[in-house]
Every structure is written in structure tokens, then in C-alpha cells.
Specification:
The chain has three domains: 1-175, 2-Layer Sandwich (Alpha-Beta Plaits), CATH 3.30.70.270; 176-228, DNA polymerase, domain 1; 245-424, Dna Ligase, domain 1 (2-Layer Sandwich). It is 38% helix and 20% strand. The protein has helices at residues 13-21, 48-52, 61-67, 78-92, 115-118, 121-136, 148-157, 171-174, 188-196, 202-206, 210-217, 219-228, 261-281, 314-328, 335-340, 375-395, and strands spanning 5-10, 30-32, 45-46, 72-74, 99-101, 106-110, 140-145, 163-166, 245-258, 284-295, 300-311, 350-362, 421-424. Helix 11 (210-217) crosses helix 12 and helix 13 packs antiparallel against helix 14. The chain is globular.
Length: 429
Amino acid sequence: MSRTILHSDCNCFYASVELLHHPELRGKPVAVGGDPEARHGIVLTADYIAKRHGVKTGMALWQAKQVCPDITFLPPRMDLYLRFSKMAHESYGEYTDRQEPYGIDECWLDVTDSAGIKGDGYKIAREISGRIKSELGITVSIGVSFNKIFAKLGSDYKKPDAITTMNKDEYREKAWPLPVSDLLYVGSATTKKLYSMGITTIGGLAQTDEKILIGRLGKRGSILWSFANGYDDSPVKIENTSAPVKSVGNSTTTPKDMETDEDVKIVLYILAESVAARLRENGFRCRTVEISIRDKDLYHFSKQVKLKNASNITKEIAEAGYRLYKESYRLPADEYEKQHFSPESFQKPLRSIGIRGTDLVTDYFWEQLDLFTDPGFREKQMKMDDAVDVIRRRFGFYSIQRGLMYRDRILSACDAKADHTVHPHGYFG
């Protein structure tokens, strides 16, 4: 049975949402990203006016200012964008429970089972497009096809506010003339290799002998050949099991060097508090915890560990991060050890540290508990964290603190509310 797959892409998402809150900027070039005050960082999203002036995603703010002197920069507000993303998914849910986010602003929808009630894929796409426009105030471009790859190509085919079909009887006409770099999973390095083989279009890739591609690109060559020929049969995942972002993290350069385990523990717990709160706020849990460490001489490394259970519990995330630190680095346990043991026994004090939860799932993700996990205790931890969140939302982050924070007022004053790093979710993981 042929499937009906949609790919919905919110046009210039961050900028579109910001313009709803800044109507005075409509009709002017706008970009979201970096630190507008300090004029550093990169462009995360630009509106179409800025794009027509040559502003591109990933461009440094100073470069964007050079090509578009009248541009207005706005700081990113990830919580706001996640809220709009959640509302979009609620609208999609009227048509299917098979939703698979691809980043915060894109989503695949399998509407095969809805066709008998809602009409064909094109009709459903038109209805979704109209609803997003009227309910959220932004526009989407939607691709309609029989697989995920061509649905994604369809949403990219024409922007903004467009619907493009790529059915079995038309994908050769529409998809094959496109540059090979437009195909999902073809990055710059792969593009160069394909160009060196004389392959510049998706059609050229499709018509190349599969064995030749395997010889040059390995297994990836076979995958790309299948994609170009429309052989993608990967399923759209069930709603609410896959998170629209890949990770949430926070890091800080401390006001003084961290010289003992206790110093590190204080800062790690503060950062873990903010990361876990952000996960809970947006309905996410992480399955992996990662820490990054930089010493006073700027030596840097990162480590990660898989959790037994997906979690947004502050204590579990903090303890996992601290265990990683203890396994990887040696500082004095406390002031006593620092004073009574030779400095050569230890590594150098730390200048900065970060922690992030990655491999995210939503609260609807289910997993088998093991015999050694106490679900009752975890539930109490969750309820305690929820209560702390309520207090902090009303009275501020520092209205309730762990006793650990009072051991060093300087370190515990680091900015746990700083901007978090949010990474988009990739197609293959």
C-alpha cells in the first residue's frame, strides 16, 4: 500500500515568531542569533527580506551587517520557539499520531490512515497550512509524497507558504533536476565526492550504477542511491516519543578557578538544576548526560554516559555528571587535601565546566524498568522537582537552594539562568 507522507517546514521560524512580537519590524530585514548587544555570534534564522540581501544561516553577525546594513538583530528565545513548536504539533495531531520532528521547526507526518476521512495528501496539506496561518500567525511550506525523503524535498522546493507534491508519477520531473546537494544526507564533503564523479543532480545520482557509488562512498553510496530512486521506506515515528531538539545544556566560566571536588560539585549542581528544569518545562527527558571541562591552561575534554532510565530529575543528572568528572579528573577532595597534599598529586584547577542532557525523548516515551530501580523513589524526586519549579517561577531561581550552594557564595553565584544550548535533531539519530 502506498503511503502519504507530509513534511511541514515553518518558514523562517525563529524570525517569524519574533515578528509576531515585534510588529514594528515587519517589512524590514530581521535576523535572530548571537548576542546583538555585543555584536558577536552567528545568524540562526533570517527573514526573507534579509535573505534577499544575502544574509544566510550560520553567517557571523558582523558579516550579516556588512551585506545588509539596515538589519535588526534579535536575541534567540528558545522557550518561546518551543512553545510555538508544541502548538504546531497539536494542530498536526488533529490529522495523525504519527509525527516525527526534524528539528524544532520541521516535522514529518504520516497521514495515510487519514485519507479516507480528511481527503488526499494535498487536501490535508492545504488544511494544515491554513490552520497554522490562522492559529499561530506564521506560514509553513509542505511537501507531499510517498516517502520521507521526497516529502522533505517537496517542502524545500518552493518557499514561503507553498505546497509541493512529489508523487510517484512526478518525482523524476521535479526531484531529479535538483542539485544533488539538495538531497537529505548529502553534505558538503559528499557533494564534492559526487561532483568529482560527474554527478551534479539527484537524477544523475539515481541513474549511476549502485556498485560504483558503493565503491566510492561505501554503504552511504547505496543509501543515497536508494533515496534518489524513491526507495526510502523508513517509518514516521509515533507522536510524542521523539523530541524536537537533540540536547539541552548549560555551561559557565566561573568567577574563580575550581580547585577542589567540592567546588566542581557546587557548579555542576547549579548547572544541572537549570538543565533539568529546562527539560521538565518542555516535556523532555534525556537518556545521556555529557560534561565538558576546561582547565586554567585551556586544556579541554568532554565525556558522556548513558543513563539507566530517561530522566529530567535534577539529582540523577547532577550525579551522573559528577561521576563522569570523578572518573576523568583528579582535584583535591576539599580544602584539607589541598593544604596537606603535594600539588603535583593533582591536575590543574578548572576554569569552566558544562553539562548537557542529550539523546532526548518526550515524557510520553515508555521504557521497561529494571528490577533494581525504585519507581516510587523516582516519583518522589519528580514531585519534589516540580514543587521547586513552581516556587522558582514565582519567586526567582535563587529563592530556593540546596545546602551545598551555601558552602561557597562566589561559585554558587554563577549565572545558572544563562542561555542554554539547543541542538537540532538529526535524521539518523
